[in-house]
Amino acid sequence: MSSRNRSAAPARRARRARRRERSGLGALGLAIAGVLLPGVSYLAAGRRRLGTVVTTLSLCLYGAAAYLALVRRDDVIAWALNPDVLLLMVVGLAVVALCWVAVLVTSYKMLRPLTAGPGARLAGSAVIGLVCFGMASSTALGAQTLMAQRQLVEKVFSGEQSKSQTRPKIKNAKDPWAQIPRLNILLLGADDGEGRDNTRTDSVMVASIDTRTGKTSLISLTRNWMRMPFPAGTRLHERFPTGFWDPNGKKEQPNFYLDAMYRFVPAEWGDLIGPSDNPGADVLKMSVGEALGLKLHYYVQINLAGFAQLVEALGGITVNINYPVPVGGNDDKKIPASRYLAPGPDRHLNGTDALWFARGRYKVKGADIARQARQRCTVKAIVERATPQNVMANYLELAKAGESLVRTDIPQSILSSFVTLGQRMKNATITNIDLDKKKNYPTGQNPNYAAMRVIIQKHLNPPAKPAAPKPTATQSPRKPKTTSTPPPDLKEACAYNPTS
Fold first, then answer.
1. For the whole model, what pTM was predicted?
2. Who's near 136: CB < 8 A, 6+ residues apart?
3. Strand partners of residue 279
């Protein structure tokens, strides 16, 4: 070794020694500061090459994260809904966490004063240990959240190989709304509680969404409708050409009600449906779509017995209650309600009370129509409650609830587009389409589905307003006469307006 190299080595050691003359508290502060930007603590310890490399890598990672969050947000959403990518994220998170801890521990060892006593060393090590524990805990929580997301996507959202007789074939998964300008989703509330024979769909609604604006129209169907039609050309239509009922039976046929079709049609005529992961939902998509004159693209089914868990995971919902709503009770068996939800504005409901707000009907005037109105308000309240901040804060509970409560035929490949559409829906209006009970279904025995289709089309595709004629020199301008009223907004329909 040359004398020049021998003299340079002691000089470097002398500079590092001088850097270690700082206090133990200062060294500890520099090491912890290196958690925010790994590498700077190496620079402070005099390890310039190592510090430069680690700091550069850290800045590149921060820059990449900012770029993805600000520029490639759609790609990030798509990755967060891809089970394979989510698994890679978990592995990557573990690797980053290990490197993070290694940088903290080694940088503190480099910065720690050589003259520190045993007590100072022990205190410093304890603080570093606590910081490492905090980093490990946050990493474990992140990994747990990613795995919960992965399990939710895999369990709830159907893969491309799932069987469905009604789901559309999407040509461009990156922009499905170019193919579907108006998305129609069947919302099912399935009740398999005590006293029920298998599953009944006590709640049947359709959400018709303008995919460009997010404006949503809700259509509620009554559970005791009979003669539900099937599309021409299907085997079910050949079997029931005049609708789902028994022409030789009694006037009231509970097994042919809308709420019985989910279980009764597959059980008795399953061979007429074809391969399906959820034949009951496919039957309802075909029949409800034909009755309303809409192509139903997907369904979302929620088990009402566990609906309370979903609301609890959101932290409850807030609704206006305009009259006492019964909790429990059975009109047919003359079993009274156990209690009532008291009227009042902005009532915050827990999961159990939210469930009964949506379905309570004991001795309620116009029970089915009243319940449909409250169900629409419940949907509105859940949409309002599901803010990004609230969802993230309660995500583990929501994911756990969703795994056991929700069934759907929405494929994984277009989930990211649904996330974007959901944001549009939150900023748009939600309206109700009144199907006119007095004229079109005073009873459920023979509803006028043709008249309902006309109402729905007028609502979804209103006629263009004629241009107002230009006034002449001798005429004063007149306001055009309005020939139709605007569709009812759920904000007004769900407002606090107690009945006398």
1. 0.73
2. 97, 101
3. none
